Amino acid sequence: MxxxxxxxxxxxxxxxxHEVSIVSARSVIENLDxxxxxxxxxxxxxxxxxINQKGKNIDPIKTLKKVDIAFPVIHGPFGEDGTLQGLxxxxxxxxxxxxxxxxxxxxxxxxxxxxxxxxxxxxxxxxWLTNYDWKTSKQKILKHIESNYTYPLFVKPSNQGSSVGxxxxxxxxxxxxxxxxALKYDTKVIIEQGIENAKEIECSILGNHNPKAxxxxxxxxxxxxxxxxxxxxxxxxxxIIPAKLPENIAKSIRFDAIKAFQILxxxxxxxxxxxYDHKNKKYYLNELNTMPGFTQISMYPKLxxxxxxxxxxxxxxxxxxxxxxxxxxSRINYSYKPKKQWYTNKKP
Length: 348
Prior knowledge:
By secondary structure, the chain is of the alpha+beta class.
């Protein structure tokens, strides 16, 4: 009989999604098949200490080298943005989810959207700026936005999740305030054209080289838009699964979700969020999340459940995909012997 695999479930983190990550990790641990896997909970505190289940500080590298695979259930910066994935790559351990490049690309909304547009995946019109741009060219920026976009406009930190720091604006006064608010959470801000009559549509993606798309789901937000409170606090938002969409639209959304997943070099999992203008029958990619919420009520596992894949089986497939990706990358030759020795191995 094969020995049980040790799964390091890493959660918490030093960003604004710390609490969401804890709830996601709890669901993952509860739903792991204990006949196959031994979960090793590792919490990263808000002060960046790594602690075990008993609350004692641990050496991250020594601990990770003793497990079979890592599952970084951390949403947002310093977990979902490639930094943690870089650690796994450096110490050569398998891990679940996207690699360094895909994680970094998808975390930065402006970069993600720019690349998707290059491959003709529709996204809302957008403009981005840095805190330096804002300090040095505020009036020029505002003039450009008002000349090229129409309200409502959504203002977002480019590298955040869970709708943290997002504002909907309807005039220049609100726009100024929203940009300064977003700059509290990132050094880069994205301003997006609002889509009228928009429905929030989500699609879960699973796979490495041959990814699959789940059925689609619609989020009916309890607030004006799907912000942090609507997602986690008031409990009034609802889901419609499967989403009620024309068959051709649903097929096109699923196709573009997979296309974006591949363009952005994703692997393992991601959730693609779209906006559907039901009056004009047009859809737009809002963003891809490489580590979506994993609670029992989160859309990523719920969409797969509606597609015939239980939570426990979903976790099993993700683990297998993580091992598969690691095996593929382990075959890469990182050393090179030149035809002629051209250097001496002296100390600098």
